[in-house]
Amino acid sequence: MMYFSRLKAAAILGVCLLGLLVSLPNVLPSPASWMPWRAVHLGLDLKGGSYLLMEVDMKAVIKERLDGLVDGIRQALRPGAIFYQTLEAQPDQNRVVLRLRDPGKIDAALAALKPLVQQEGSNGTPDLEIANTLDGTITLTLSPVALHARASAAVQQSIEIVRRRIDETGVVDPQITQQGDSRIVVQLPGIEDPNRIKQLLGKTAHMTFRLVDEAANAKSGTAPPPGVEFLQLEDERGGKIAVRKRVDVDGADLTDARAGTDSQTGQWVVNFKFNSNGARRFADITRANVGHRFAIVLDDKVISAPVIREPITGGSGQISGGFTANTANDLAVLLRAGALPAPLTVVEERTIGPELGADSIRAGAISLLAGFLLVIAFMGFFYGLFGWFANLCLVVNLVLMLALMSLLEATLTLPGMAGILLTLGMAVDANILINERIREEQRRGRPPLAALEHGFQRAYATIFDSNAATFLSHVMLFVFGSGPVKGFAVTITIGIATSMFTAWMLTRLLVSRWYLAVRPRLLPV
Hints:
Elements: H1 6-23, E1 41-42, H2 44-47, E2 49-56, H3 58-77, E3 84-90, E4 95-100, H4 106-113, E5 119-120, E6 125-126, E7 128-132, E8 137-142, H5 144-169, E9 175-179, E10 183-189, H6 195-202, E11 207-211, E12 228-233, E13 240-244, E14 249-250, E15 254-261, E16 268-274, H7 276-288, E17 294-298, E18 301-304, E19 316-323, H8 325-337, E20 344-352, H9 354-407, E21 411-412, H10 414-443, H11 448-480, H12 484-518
Parallel strand pairs: 1-21, 12-18
Antiparallel strand pairs: 2-10, 2-20, 3-4, 4-8, 5-6, 7-8, 9-10, 11-14, 11-17, 12-13, 15-16, 16-19, 17-18
Helix pairs in contact: 1-9, 5-8, 9-10, 9-12, 10-11, 10-12, 11-12
């Protein structure tokens, strides 16, 4: 138990030295840009920054599904020559109402509409409830299961896209979590002015490519003809332009988008690339419509509507529209990250200044230092030399904790600092158990070496059981918790691992080397 080979002793000291080296990035600047220099990040409550609470517009999610259902009904009824009087979506009641011209064809219509019903959930619950009346009216209503499934999917998809967009801006360690059924919490450490982030997150960024209807006059003041809509044109002239409702190429087929400058004009543009399906569609449309205008529509606004000079068959293109460097980069970020399933609105916004974070760091550091000094004084006073061995191991424990958190690039919050302070007490508990057990063995009349052997061996079971139980409980906190709770759990679990190493391996090594050098008749414990 007290014997350490040279290889084992070198491995223990090597781990301690490695931990010291890995923790250095937290106090020293990086000597070179190519060198991996990982450090612990400070959370919003320590570094300051912005807090945004955003809500997913569920009405837009429902409206999109109902609008798609209306288009699907038109296509489903066309092959059977089933005509209708009215076909309208009613988003406020989560349904689509269809009135047939000939009530006698209601069975044929129901058969044609059955393929439109989708299955939701693992049990395959239909997402539509279809009802009909004798006068030829058919009602297709979204089921509660479908509404819940679509809301959940929209929030999860929104979280992923929000994370992509923020990552593209270079914000370090943003915290993005779900709150309730339809809200998303975004914490941005170090960002004092979140206006640019809000603009990026507030755009749905659904891009489509559609042909311009050159026969319709958007300035006439009359309603647009069927299949056409008047959309706002975003350029120096403004005004509206007649665009066909049919989407010729969807922005979902984009694979990349980068800001750049036009080689001829020097103006900022956005260069984009399609996947194979989008490239094929884009080539077919441009080949068939040379000389006509092709509108690039983003969130129901026309960015530009250039004339197709020649077929574009390379699967790539360029968006121009009076961009600046910032607006071109922002648009490229939006296109790369993908479109949100529904608009996001800011419900709550808070800005935490760095001076508040500095006060938190100062208060946390004072509490850590005070707790650390009290623990050192206690151990040195009650256990003498063995207490000072424990104090040295406690310092190494803190270094190893910092090293592991640096490797994980963990975020340190106020609860995390509280976890570090709690870990100090837990680490000392193991040394107290060992020292008290050694005292007890020595009182029984065992010689020094035997007292050390039995003290470490019999204390080990208690130390392992208590730390294992604590470790498992905090793993559950990490799995099921969120935000500050996770930060606290991460700190404690790392602290348990390092304290087990220092108390069981490093303390034994120090005591063993001391015993071999001194060979005392009585242990100073």
